[in-house]
Specification:
Strand content: 25-35%
Radius of gyration: 20 Å
Helix content: 25-40%
Structural class: alpha+beta
Distance between the termini: 32 Å
Number of helices: 8
Number of strands: 8
Mean pLDDT: 90
Largest sheet: 6 strands, antiparallel
Strand order of the largest sheet: 3-4-5-8-7-6
């Protein structure tokens, strides 16, 4: 059992604990989770709360209920995260990783802004921009290839942004907000699907000569500070077979 530093409801804390165990591989496919009664006793919650936690795991496709047997762990790749979900995670923990994820292949360079990136950042096409790339993986393989586009002026305030290594001390947005003393106050997310180009396939470590024929999820996130400056534009290219899911409480 794990204590949470955030203010999530008890059922969400329980679900997050088992999500981590499942996605990290510590709980193997076919394993059975504790019964509702045992969960309630272990976490000192009501059986209704324990059942809600298991229902959340079922909704996420991580487990299934088998009548007369219990709740079984499934073997399915986890969905990819949006930029806003990673920002929320980073604000809580300082890391954008999802449960069971890790990141590698960190690259940073100052390049000329492509036209679509320039529009998103409200800068002139061809202007210098910091491009940070990384690959998110879990035990099933690549979750997504992620690119952060950041106006070059922030490199003078946060030199770490231009280093080809994983950031420490916070996410890029946290470091920019600390350096400028301007919090991130708005974000704009998009989600779409497209066929992979040869370049996309290369980024996802696939054969560029034979990219998959099914479309993949592409997500963008634009982050704006308290003075209406665009601090970062992120593009997440999902691996084939990865989906995106969001969940929210419905109040009646």
């Amino acid at each position: 059992m794990s204590d949470q530093a955030d203010n999530r409801a008890p059922y969400a804390q329980i679900a997050a604990h088992y999500t981590e165990l499942i996605t990290s591989g510590e709980l193997q496919p076919g394993s059975l989770l504790p019964s509702i009664k045992n969960l309630a006793q272990e976490w000192k919650v009501s059986t209704a709360t324990a059942e809600k936690a298991l229902r959340k795991l079922r909704t996420e496709g991580l487990v299934r209920g088998i009548h007369g047997i219990g709740t079984e762990v499934l073997d399915r790749p986890a969905p990819m995260s949006s930029g806003s979900q990673r920002q929320d995670r980073g604000s809580r923990s300082g890391s954008s990783w999802g449960s069971g994820e890790r990141s590698d292949a960190h690259q940073a360079a100052v390049v000329s802004a492509p036209a679509d990136v320039a529009r998103a950042l409200d800068i002139a096409p061809g202007s210098d921009v910091i491009r940070r790339r990384r690959v998110y993986r879990d035990r099933h393989g690549i979750v997504a290839h992620s690119t952060s586009w950041i106006p070059a002026r922030y490199g003078k305030l946060v030199p770490e942004l231009m280093k080809s290594e994983r950031l420490t001390g916070g996410t890029s947005l946290q470091l920019i907000a600390q350096a400028t003393r301007r919090p991130i106050t708005h974000r704009i997310d998009t989600a779409s699907a497209r066929l992979l180009t040869s370049e996309d396939a290369q980024l996802l470590e696939l054969d560029p000569a034979k990219p998959p024929t099914e479309p993949v999820v592409v997500m963008t996130a634009k982050f704006i500070d308290s003075e209406n400056n665009v601090a970062e534009y992120g593009v997440d290219l999902g691996s084939p077979g990865r989906t995106w899911r969001t969940e929210s409480e419905v109040t009646q």
